[in-house]
Amino acid sequence: MTKKELIFLGPPACGKGTQTNRLAEYLNFPHVDTGSLLRAEIKGETEAGKEAKSYIDKGQLVPVELVSRIIKNRLSQEDCKNGYILDGFPRSVEQADELEKMNAEIDKNTDTKFIAVYFDIDTSILVERIVNRRSCPVCGEIYNLAFKAPKKENTCDKCGAQLTQRKDDTREVAQARFDTYNNETAPLIDYYKNKGVLKSIDANGDIETVWERLLEVIR
Ligand code: AMP
């Protein structure tokens, strides 16, 4: 069986998290989301979390050594052996080179298929999306007060936990995150295009429409 390695690119709040959560369930692959892994380190007050916090609060990238260590550890686990959904890594050319090295080490003698999915979206709507975003700290479900509100105010439809707002989902930090994306992450679009593994999808539209487009390109 071919191991499927799916990575996702796109600006903050482009809908990657919502779609990749669903895709992970659909394909029965683990959803490896660097942002959530880092927030869990912060919550657990680990050394890594303490180091990561100052960068996250400013909308900057956490140092590559720290995030690569966390990701390598996660991708080496047994549940990733048939495939994984990697959301939020790599976020720079340096991280992409690191991922290639990790995969070469982890995948010895394994037949693999690597796809980079790019969520192509009109960025003018994204700051509003960010400030309206809420998420479930327990099951990870993502909501938006403007277009995907929970049925009961501030309560997760799936598991009933109280929803929270990410500390970096403010207008000020959002702007810094867009700058970081444009400077460091956007060059990966050409990087993966040149390797012949990039699939772009139109990420404008409602959740169902984007989901159908996503399924088309990951087959
Ligand atoms: P996200 O949940 O993907 O929006 O990520 C939230 C924050 O975590 C980012 O603004 C970064 O500060 C940090 N972060 C997430 N993924 C990475 C990564 N691959 N490299 C460095 N920092 C990251």
- Low-pLDDT stretches are none
What can be said about the biggest beta sheet? 5 strands, parallel
What molecules are bound to this protein?
adenosine monophosphate
> How many distinct helices?
9
Separation, N- and C-terminal Cα atoms: 14 Å
Q: List the domain count as a whole number.
A: 1
CATH architecture group name = 3-Layer(aba) Sandwich
Structural class: alpha/beta
pLDDT average, as an integer? 96
> Could you name the CATH class?
Alpha Beta
Q: Considering the protein shown, what is the CATH homologous superfamily? A: P-loop containing nucleotide triphosphate hydrolases
Shape: globular
Content of β-strand: 15-25%
Find the count of extended strands (DSSP E, 2+ residues). 7
The quaternary structure here is single chain
Strand order of the largest sheet: 2-3-1-4-7
Provide the succession of SSEs.
EHEHHHEHEHEEHHEH
CATH structural fold name: Rossmann fold
**Whole-angstrom Rg:** 17 Å
The percentage helix is: 40-55%
Write a concise keyword list for the protein shown above.
single chain; 219 residues; alpha/beta; Rossmann fold; five-stranded parallel β-sheet; two-stranded antiparallel sheet; 9 helices; 7 strands; 46% helix; globular; binds adenosine monophosphate
How would you explain this protein's 3D organization?
The model has no long low-confidence stretch (mean pLDDT 96). The strands form two sheets. Strands 2-3-1-4-7 form a five-stranded parallel sheet, with helices on both faces. The protein has a single domain (3-218), classed as Rossmann fold. The chain contains nine helices and seven strands; from the N terminus they run βαβαααβαβαββααβα. It is of the alpha/beta class and 219 residues long.
